Amino acid sequence: MGSIDAQTTGPTKGTLVIVGGNDRDRLCFKEFVKLAGGKDARIVIVTTASSSSKDFDYVNHSQVKEARASLGLTQVTALHTHDPIKADTGKFIEPLLKADAVWFTGGRQWRLVDAYTGTRTETAFKEVLARGGVIGGSSAGATIQGTFLMRGDTNGSNILIGNHQRGFGFLRNVAIDQHVIPRFRHFDLTKVLTDPEGKMDKSHDRAALLGIGLDEGTGIVVRQDKCEVIGKSDGVVLIYDPTKWKSDTKPHGRYQPLWHGAQYNLRHRKIIKSGKPPLPKSTHRPEGFYKDIFMDGGVNLSSRRNLPAAESMGLSYELYAGRDPDEQRELFIGNALDENGVLLYPDGQPRFRLIYVNGGGATAHGKSLELAGRKIFRQFFENGGSYSGSCAGSFLSGRNTNEKSEPRLGYLNIFPYNTLTTGIKQTRVGHAIPHNSPLLKYRDFGGDYHVAEVYHNNGNWLSLDALKSMKNVEVLATYDHPKHKVHEGAAIWAYKKDKAAGRVINIGSHPEGITSGERLEMTEACFRYAIDGVGTPVLKGQLKNGVVRHMNKRTSDKNPEHTRIGDLQYHHFSFDISNQPTNVEIELSGEKGFDLCLYLKKGAPAFRSNADHAQKTQGSAKVLKAKLPPGKWFLSVECVTTVKAELDGSRGFFNYSGNTAVLNGAAYRIKFSTGN
Fold first, then answer.
1. So what's the architecture of 291-531 in CATH?
2. What pLDDT is recorded for position 521?
3. In this structure, are residues 192 and 207 in contact, taking their beta carbons and an 8 Å threshold?
4. Cβ neighbours of residue 181 closer than 8 Å, sequence gap 6 or more
5. Can you give the pTM of this predicted structure?
6. What is the CATH number of domain 4-273?
7. For the domain with range 539-674, which CATH number is right: 3.40.50.1820, 2.40.160.10, 2.60.120.380, 1.10.10.10?
8. What is the pLDDT of residue 489?
9. Per residue, what are the HEC states of 621-641?
10. Quick check: 39 pLDDT over 50?
11. Higher pLDDT residue, 283 or 349?
12. How far apart are CA 321 and CA 306, in angstroms?
């Protein structure tokens, strides 16, 4: 690890609170106040990073006003200057000499460096810690606390190693990044710590640096050499330790996630206590499906573990965010426990209403699925499941990119056209919602039909010319990015092949990580339109009077009309009643250990919610008797039995327990008979 001087260490005395930005619910700031001594603590808020403008109201900064008004703090002082000469005076530092705590607001970290480095003010900051006080900060106020100053270039925050490289060093031999999850900065600290272009100043011992990447609404509390993850329950902190990397370590293997409540020893670089990622919040069960959404963040993708749009709409979801190709293969393609894979029922019907695919490497992920895995994805779509992807996920659904004539190896080709590369990297673009967009059925986007500041990084689009030759394609949103080729081209689009297939919704940018506002609303509307586009229920066949129908085949038999039923699945049948009201008897006999229900509906497929007649008692044997008027009747069998799902945070996927035999289906037989 290097010399003792090169070890990562925290403050000898005092406490650090380091927050990744957008602490919307003030969970981290409230913890900072608590550590400082409560509402009567003497707190100095340094607002310098927020702006370079002379006209900016630094004294009445929004965080200063909120601290006083909303949080009831009684002794808050705003401190600001851009003049290092002023910062080096005794009068300027007077509030710091009595302060219990100091908080640095967000903005641009280099402004803090230019104003305070080498001055009496910087010394006074460190003296607050030395007497046991608290120093905290969010976003720029987080990065400034490390030794190496990441994103410190005056020409833009996208420059990782710039013309300002030295922070205040409250936390020694550390480089700190913020907003890492919603802004897809997962790999930026890797670039800093490897420094392939040799931009880092030689005064830094690069080999000894530890990287800390902070999610929004998430922070760490540091006392001496130990830190603990605080903030929102699904927040994550990524630890980048180059001493553990090998030359062939993949990008996703170069960071270690710490979840809420985790504790970590910075000096020894070891986990003291493992935090646990939360389960998705919703338990909603859609009729006819196991759950609403399966999120694929697997091999060569971004490993996202929460989906704000699903949570805000109360939709149930599971995910895979692992990095093991063999593990991924078994999950999607199947194994002895679940021979049809997580996405499909035993008869090949979609088990979820929607697959959502993260950003990352489209081709690499598609190849990691192998031919058999890509076939599963296509079967899911062809049999009625919808698909949505952002950036890489959008590319993956297509045929190829740009003008390439042959289908690309690794792509799914469920969107049967090429998409275009934007060439726009790590920036934010506007999205305009056309007045005829189906998204307006779900959200109004503030009435101006515009969504601003959507993060974009090498995503895709469709040009107006390309759209002219595409069938069954709808433009849901266009790029608002003047003076660029993508302007007014399709940023989000939908494709539906036919009634039986699902709906594809491709999103060229990255709105999916946002937890509030119009970017969240746009993702919600996309998911809702995708889910509303699932295929129509499939009839297993028409029942004949007095004839027993056996449903006992397995997936491997490739006989879906007679295959077993999966967990929370419906099997649909029909029969006709002619001329006059007729007494009917439905006999259901199923495999023991499973709960099966019966439903009848005239004129449309039957579900628990719409049934004219139902038999819902516990067990697998049922008899339903009813006098039915003439017409076409639909009968459904529902398998109520399901598995217990629990997220394995260390491996990034759900483990199933309970009656897992249902994954391979429950066998049953059914008979329809008429009486007098």
1. 3-Layer(aba) Sandwich (3.40)
2. 93
3. no
4. 215, 216, 236, 304, 513
5. 0.66
6. 3.40.50.880
7. 2.60.120.380
8. 96
9. EEEEEEEECCEEEEEEEEECC
10. yes
11. 349
12. 10
